[in-house]
């Protein structure tokens, strides 16, 4: 107990939610990787279990280490990370392996680890946006010196992510947009940004139709939207994933089939990542599915509470942006699983199997807890000062 008391600080509710998600992730990933193990590891399901446990354990270590760093230091880090993310994303687009007409990751030398560069870029630009908003608080009404300096880095990063991963770019842009709104950016500028976004989408539609090589994923985006809107024929290749997810959810019922008893894990593509929420409902029931939503909402609420209590503008916006972005991504993933949103390929944070996704999510949570840790220090310091003053007056 002394170890946790001395080394684990910050919001205990967030810590508890993360531990619950981690434990559940271990169980569901172990269950949902059976077909993958049979195909690539001769049925050795322990291979993916141990790999995932190592990934989660390292993620928790990153979370512990990150939350011990003073959050003010992330302001300088965000500046360095942003300028490093630009060439990294460009290199991924040009040199990254082309899988399904998209280059999303690179292979790190020596350690042979796959690295999804958009995960790093997301963290970098959210933190950098918080930094810029904090620095430009007195210039927000100035378009050139204020708003433009805040928005062009966001647009640049999203444009670099867009060709390979539209959904990630959209989620990231939305997160930064809401963060700018909370950072008191004038509504007229935000409205203009929405207009520019609409024009940008129209340009993508035109270019995608007349020059498909510029956006190789354009055809996939259109098919997913057509399938979601019902224009594609039932039981077609495009509707296969949503249909199998519906079956998993419908057969799971209220209480589920039980741990490890999923049938659709052998039918769904990527049941351990993109559609893990459907497998959770199939095995543990819709009641547990609602509990997962509650856990994410708790993380969001606690993140907003930390943001509201923090007197430092950077720390406040940093906590808000990271907690909102994490939970918004989770909601998108779960909306896809229950067919409320077109298929996107967004992982479920701290639940889906993955490497860099889990690690950068852990770092994001660690940063939120770093802000919370500093708040705890300030509150204890204030209490000690009040106690000392009381003794003096006594």
Task: Give an overview of the whole structure.
- This protein is mainly α and 394 residues long.
- Helices cover 71% and strands 2% of the residues.
- It has one domain.
- It is globular and about 60 Å long.
- The mean pLDDT is 85.
Uncertain parts: none
Helix fraction?
over 70%
For the sheet with most strands, the description reads:
2 strands, antiparallel
Structural class: mainly alpha
Radius of gyration from the alpha-carbon trace, in angstroms: 22 Å
Q: How many helix segments?
A: 14
Shape: globular
Name the assembly state: single chain
Number of strands: 2
| Average pLDDT number | 85
How many angstroms does the end-to-end distance come to? 36 Å
Order of strands in the sheet with most strands: 1-2
Please indicate the count of domains.
1
Write a short abstract of this structure.
This protein has about 400 residues and is mainly alpha-helical. It contains 14 helices and two strands; from the N terminus they run H-H-H-H-H-E-E-H-H-H-H-H-H-H-H-H. The chain has one domain.
What key attributes describe this structure?
394 residues; two-stranded antiparallel ribbon; globular; 2% strand
Describe the secondary structure blueprint for this structure.
Blueprint: H1 2-7, H2 12-32, H3 34-40, H4 45-67, H5 73-95, E1 105-107, E2 114-116, H6 117-135, H7 143-161, H8 166-182, H9 187-210, H10 218-229, H11 240-252, H12 276-309, H13 313-337, H14 356-393
Antiparallel strand pairs: 1-2
Helix pairs in contact: 2-4, 2-12, 3-4, 4-14, 5-6, 5-7, 6-7, 6-8, 6-13, 7-8, 8-13, 11-12, 12-13, 12-14, 13-14
């Amino acid at each position: 107990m002394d170890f946790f008391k001395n080394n684990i600080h910050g919001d205990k509710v967030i810590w508890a939610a993360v531990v619950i998600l981690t434990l559940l992730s271990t169980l569901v990933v172990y269950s949902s990787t059976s077909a993958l193990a049979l195909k690539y590891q001769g049925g050795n399901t322990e291979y993916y279990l141990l790999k995932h446990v190592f990934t989660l354990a390292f993620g928790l270590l990153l979370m512990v280490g990150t939350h011990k760093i003073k959050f003010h230091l992330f302001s300088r880090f965000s500046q360095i990370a942003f300028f490093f993310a630009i060439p990294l994303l460009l290199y991924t687009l040009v040199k990254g392996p082309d899988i399904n007409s998209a280059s999303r990751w690179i292979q790190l030398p020596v350690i042979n680890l796959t690295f999804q560069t958009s995960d790093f870029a997301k963290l970098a630009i959210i933190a950098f946006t918080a930094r810029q908003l904090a620095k430009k608080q007195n210039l927000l009404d100035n378009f050139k010196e204020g708003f433009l300096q805040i928005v062009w880095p966001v647009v640049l990063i999203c444009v670099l992510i867009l060709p390979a991963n539209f959904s990630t770019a959209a989620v990231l842009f939305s997160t930064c947009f809401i963060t700018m709104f909370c950072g008191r950016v004038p509504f007229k500028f935000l409205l203009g940004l929405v207009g520019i976004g609409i024009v940008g989408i129209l340009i993508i539609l035109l270019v995608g139709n007349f020059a498909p090589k510029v956006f190789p994923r354009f055809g996939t985006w259109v098919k997913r939207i057509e399938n979601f809107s019902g224009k594609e024929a039932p039981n077609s290749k495009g509707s296969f994933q949503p249909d199998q997810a519906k079956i998993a959810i419908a057969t799971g019922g209220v209480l589920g089939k039980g741990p490890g008893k999923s049938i659709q894990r052998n039918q769904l593509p990527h049941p351990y990542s993109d559609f893990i929420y459907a497998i959770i409902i199939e095995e543990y029931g819709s009641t547990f599915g609602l509990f997962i939503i509650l856990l994410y909402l708790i993380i969001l609420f606690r993140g907003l509470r930390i943001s509201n209590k923090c007197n430092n503008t950077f720390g406040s916006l940093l906590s808000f942006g990271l907690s909102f972005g994490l939970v918004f991504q989770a909601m998108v993933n779960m909306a896809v699983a229950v067919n409320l949103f077109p298929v996107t390929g967004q992982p479920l944070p701290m639940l889906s199997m993955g490497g860099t996704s889990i690690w950068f999510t852990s770092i994001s949570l660690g940063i939120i807890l770093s802000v919370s840790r500093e708040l705890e220090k300030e509150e204890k310091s204030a209490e000690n000062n009040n106690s000392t003053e009381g003794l003096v007056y006594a």
